[in-house]
Write a structure and sequence with these properties.
eight-stranded mixed beta sheet, 10 helices, 357 residues, alpha+beta, seven-stranded mixed beta sheet, globular, FAD/NAD(P)-binding domain
Length: 357
């Protein structure tokens, strides 16, 4: 952590670094727990991100519990599609529905709810963290030379977290897989999220509205969106003459490792706390659950409870996603995945249900 002599210009019980969906959810949780909360975010307006934009039923429920209203296109399950476009495995959720929501619309809804409950926003980019002379206080230094002070810091600043780096909790990245997303002016042709598989990666098709779908591709570094789409022939044919409503937006590398999600009075939440891959599409669900757990530990003054809670909440995601990513690095396993899922619908359905909760 960096020493400094910045002018302290704000103070709160909890400083949330990162004003994306997970950061805003953590801020809302903090206010609902009776804490004063300051969110530090350099970007103005609704924050966009390259992601699949499909909210699992558990995510929709968690947002509702926070008092966040969202609008989008409902979907009833998940379908895996083989490269030939004909072999498929489909599971419909046993309870609840998911929802495809533009990330900017989700962010706007969370930001409005945060403002309604009294979350304060501070514009700025974090460049360092340090303790103060007072017990149980931390200073977050900003890029304009000023600083803010708080009792706790929640690092919710994503894949490339400054808080993770500044606390020495980062343990590197795999660096192999990246994501790219665009939107197409096309009525959804299915009431499920489709995951198309190819020899090199995956493509997610998510209904966003009655007239728009989101297309997100995951694969190796250096893939352009057009190159990636070309590896899914059946999907590429369907999208051959489509009008694209947004430009390509990328993110990565996806895998990020940490030694622990907590150090002292700093807790890492969401992608900042380590990330495996977007393959199973539940990053936001996990992020919201961990935000709630982090605030609960902060409010109780028991930060060392958080690693246990974090491991428990992320266990299924880490095991299932790590296993799937590792297995599908083998070309034969990748080719057989969808046919095997189609032949074992109960196994496929059980995996989807665990991720949808």
């Amino acid at each position: 952590m960096r020493p400094g002599s910045e002018m302290i210009r704000a103070d709160a019980d909890v400083l949330v670094v990162g004003g994306g969906p997970v950061g805003l959810a953590a801020a809302i949780e903090g206010r609902l727990a009776g804490l004063s909360v300051l969110v530090i975010e350099p970007r103005a307006g609704s924050v966009d991100k390259a992601c699949g934009e499909g909210l699992m039923p558990g995510t929709v429920s968690a947002l509702r519990n926070l008092g966040v209203g969202i609008q989008g296109a409902p979907f009833r399950g998940v379908r895996y599609v083989a490269p030939n476009g004909r072999t498929t495995a489909t599971h419909h959720f046993s309870a609840g529905t998911g929802m495809g929501v533009r990330r900017t619309a989700l962010h706007a809804a969370l930001a409005q709810r945060a403002a309604d409950v009294g979350v304060v926003r501070q514009s700025g980019r974090v460049v360092g963290l340090r303790p103060t002379g007072a017990p149980a206080r931390l200073v977050v230094a900003l890029d304009d030379g000023s600083a803010v002070e708080g009792g706790w810091v929640l690092g919710c600043d994503g894949l490339h977290s400054v808080v993770r780096r500044e606390t020495g909790l980062a343990r590197g990245s795999d660096g192999r897989r990246f994501g790219i997303r665009r939107h197409a002016a096309l009525a959804p042709w299915s009431d499920v999220v489709e995951v198309h598989w190819s020899a090199l990666g995956e493509a997610y098709v998510t209904p966003i509205s009655a007239t728009e779908v989101g297309i997100a591709v995951l694969g190796p570094r250096g893939w352009s969106f057009d190159e990636a789409l070309g590896s899914f022939p059946a999907l590429a044919r369907r999208l051959a003459d489509v009008a694209w409503t947004t430009s390509a937006r990328g993110a990565g590398p996806l895998q990020q490792k940490v030694s622990s999600p907590v150090r002292g009075r700093v807790l890492l939440v969401g992608d900042a706390a380590g990330y495996v891959d977007a393959l199973t599409g539940e990053g936001l669900r996990i992020g919201l659950a961990c935000a709630q757990a982090a605030v609960r530990c902060v409010a109780a003054g028991r930060p060392l409870d958080y690693p246990y809670d974090w491991r428990s909440l992320t266990r299924d995601y880490r095991w299932l996603t790590s296993g799937l990513v590792t297995t599908t690095r083998v070309p034969l396993a990748r080719r057989l995945l969808v046919p095997v899922a189609a032949r074992l619908p109960r196994v496929f359905g059980a995996a989807v249900e665990r991720l949808a909760r």
